[in-house]
Amino acid sequence: MAEFIVMPKLGFDMREAVLVSWLKGIGEQVTKGEVVAEIESDKATLELEALVSGTMLKQLEKEGSVVPVGAKMAIVGEAGEDISGLTSGDETQAAAQEEAPKVDAAAEPAPAPAAAPVMETAVSAEFPGGVKATPVARRLAEEKSVDLRRVKGSGPDGRVRRSDIEAYLAAPPAAQPCAPMPVTAVPTGPETTEIPTSRLRQAIARRMTESKTSVPHFYVTSDIDMEPALALRKQINALLPEEQKVTVNDMVVKAAALALQEFPNLNAAFGGDKIVRHNRIHVGTAVAVEGGLLTIVQKNTNLTPLAQIAADNRAMIGRARVGKVKPEDVEGSTFTVSNLGAFDVESFVAIINPPDAAILAVGSARQVPVVVNGQLAVGTRMKATISADHRVTDGAEAAQFMQALKAILENPLRLLL
Prior knowledge:
By secondary structure, this protein is of the alpha+beta class.
């Protein structure tokens, strides 16, 4: 029986992706788990694997198309199978979309409407900015400088649609004037170089702005004695082949996962009128890639042996840096570690990666003067700072988490249990 290949949702804020290329043509055999297409999300170029086996019977999307999450991309079934019943509705819908009036993206943007009191729009923590809106409506709102929170949605569950944006532009509601947001003038001319922002950089800019402006961050820093952990790492790596050697970051990731078992409130997300605690612990690691950052995710981190965490992270980081991550590499994080220790950074604070409730910023393990039993000595210390969402947790709980993390790394045999 024929089945659809659909655009997967890779991350809580993903709404669409570009179909870069088909790797299987019509009439070719497809095996479950085989890569059939390359897609480009805001984060990276990803390999799309087939969830069924069969013959590629029809491709419903062309290369270069922007495809919404959940949209049907292709049909796989038995060779010669009649699929007319599966495609008739899609063709009718596509024709209707072709006949619908299109928004000229190249046209001069309409003047921004006067500011209005925020209306009761449908909100959800699952959507960028907390507002339910279709991808088309969101793009049009960005082009026309419309605040989605001021638009009344007419779609299912109050979702804002393109027609709602157009109606708002045609007859914006009466409003009390308010001061515009200050905008810093950017110099241009022969003494400047303009570099177009990539989809990844745009995504980082959007998500970090949303996080920093909508999430009340607070920070707690601990100083950790890393000599025991570094000594254990040396012993472990002496027994492992090169491709399985454990890094300091792997140990921090495992320690964070074990500490989260004790403090599940930090393995959570803010859901408006509720706090959503995750039943599993998936620790992400921020990775520097060309043009920005990518978070790779190690699943069930608290239950995974340290050597396996090291192998998983090494493989995912390698794929991230060559632009070939798999969908499962970058989705599902419940807590994030950002480690700048390799860059000789003493300490820093990180911006929370939505919808996580916290992120851990890790500096270098350094030799510094310490006082031991009243005597001055040389010790190895590492500063780590948690950034936490004050809507979900408070300072005391975050401090207790950092105490637990410190205790694990200073008694590192717990990482092997």
